[in-house]
């Protein structure tokens, strides 16, 4: 009895549950490049190239392990251009009598998969994605017991459960988190180390040509293309991070430097989220670096928190609150996404730099995402739907399960505080402290009013003024709202006038 084992583009792990009991002699593994997945948002060209090349390399590895792989390239004759269509064709052409698949990472696709059995007329087994360290049901059990779903408490429970960075019942170093040590501004002239870069083999070269031919109208720059495209390369990049970069990661986690998109960040999110690396492996490797004395605790703990804490937590939030979550817009933000997010001109150096990095690399690090592009979208009241779609499209690591809570919940506060205890709103002062952007900017970060004032400053106060009733019950916002209410009336009017001027210029593409 032949079974069809479907492996999706972000399920490139040999331990994936869909392959758990696949029989190389009898079964068929199906992988398919389809327009439905490549265009449900306008993915960055590099993201498509990375995924197609990694999929093709993974298929080769499976063949090397003796599997019969039916790999459908985008241009293959007869490609129906949808996953269901490819499953249907494969069933008809291989005589397989059932389908096995690991649950999709996105709600829209999992919902679709749930209808496959009825449509296809054969059993479709949908298995848990056990690459994550907590199941969806496990997260729900954790959440059911709580009034507030704060990441910090989830993370502590995960540390205890997996015994990561623990000394008996206590956290290593006597503290759960070392954030206070992890907020150093960049040093003058600071630059990140040179990263590994990979030669294109025949598979990658062919994929780059395909993407050039079919997706050149998509956002971003395709070349130079330097992503790892298989597990071995991804592991080598991670090993470079652990040995050369991790020691500085903690201190400068929140620092931003113009022209330095990576600084001391690991850049492994795209590999983790596509399955080339497994979370438990990278957590254990980082922990070992601490115990070997190769990296300090503040760096290792900060790194592990991102993976054992944030990554698992946002996935739990996503599945617990979808599909309602995607429609939330607590602050009623509806302004159309301005052209500058797609590379349009702006004199704001921080935004221009974060967007430029994004378009060039399909990457920018978390503090640029949260405190520059995200913070600006929050303050300017940009449409939640459009901002979420932008983040989903432009980053090579973005799938809705991770993008939506991070953008809608964390950056835009559109879930009304379900994830964050207060909005991540900041004026230009924060950006000035944590970056070297403001020195070379047209706008003056010291000013809130007048034509040269940094737009972040007036927009920040406008954001507080407009939403003050909504923040009334939030004790963490009380002082800020009080600060606005206490401000001299003339000054308030001048700030609001400058904010309106900024918004008009934003819409006109002249900010
Ligand atoms: C992101 C993506 C792209 C661009 N293309 C494909 C594809 O052609 N075939 C495929 O199986 N998966 C692709 N993916 C990843 C899927 O969109 C991803 O599996 C779902 O969004 C669920 O996370």
TrEMBL record:
<dbReference type="InterPro" id="IPR014729">
    <property type="entry name" value="Rossmann-like_a/b/a_fold"/>
</dbReference>
<dbReference type="InterPro" id="IPR007357">
    <property type="entry name" value="PhrB-like"/>
</dbReference>
<protein>
    <submittedName>
        <fullName>Deoxyribodipyrimidine photolyase</fullName>
    </submittedName>
</protein>
<dbReference type="InterPro" id="IPR052551">
    <property type="entry name" value="UV-DNA_repair_photolyase"/>
</dbReference>
<dbReference type="InterPro" id="IPR036134">
    <property type="entry name" value="Crypto/Photolyase_FAD-like_sf"/>
</dbReference>
<dbReference type="Pfam" id="PF04244">
    <property type="entry name" value="DPRP"/>
</dbReference>
